[in-house]
């Protein structure tokens, strides 16, 4: 049985805490599973184009297959969206190795689950590998038809924007004027000598 390497005394521990990784994985898995199960249900129970009211005038299910992005943009470049989702997923996994904040883990996990949900459609659904059309079915007035994966991406990206605006770093520390005095970087002796 191998033990994890010890961190030298005085050196900051840069390893991602196990609980943070578990939170990111749980968020990603929850979004992914909910997305794939609801898409399976839609494909199994609805006809393409079928519209079923849920809350009259506010919410309905409408089964479409989307080759593009939101609002059906880029319908002729489906492979680009497949490539973007692969790159985003890899970057998130690599970034999670540096995350020590539960809020960042949650945000990135939501985006990862959503990206993987739609990537699964791109890879496995008709008309073919890498060119598959995404199943969308959640419809509201004057907006694009979307799915659970899209919800995960939007909520996750919104959290990323909020954390960034609040000055929260991946390790949970704060930057800028909002940071507690103990977290602010003190000037080095060389910088002190140049002031005044």
- Please give the share of residues in helix: 40-55%
DSSP strand tally: 3
Structural class by helix and strand composition: mainly alpha
Strand order of the largest sheet: 1-2-3
GO molecular function: aspartic-type endopeptidase activity
Protein name: Lipoprotein signal peptidase
Catalytic activity: Release of signal peptides from bacterial membrane prolipoproteins. Hydrolyzes -Xaa-Yaa-Zaa-|-(S,diacylglyceryl)Cys-, in which Xaa is hydrophobic (preferably Leu), and Yaa (Ala or Ser) and Zaa (Gly or Ala) have small, neutral side chains
EC number: 3.4.23.36
What features would you highlight for this structure?
196 residues; mainly alpha; 3-stranded antiparallel beta sheet; disordered C terminus; membrane; Peptidase_A8; transmembrane helix; transmembrane
Task: Explain how this protein is built.
By secondary structure, this protein is mainly α. It has one domain. The protein contains five helices and three strands, in the order H-E-E-H-H-E-H-H. It has a three-stranded antiparallel sheet. The C terminus is likely disordered.
Write the layout of secondary structure elements.
Layout: H1 18-45, E1 51-55, E2 59-66, H2 78-96, H3 102-124, E3 134-139, H4 148-165, H5 189-194
Antiparallel strand pairs: 1-2, 2-3
Gist of the model:
With 196 residues, the chain is mostly helical.
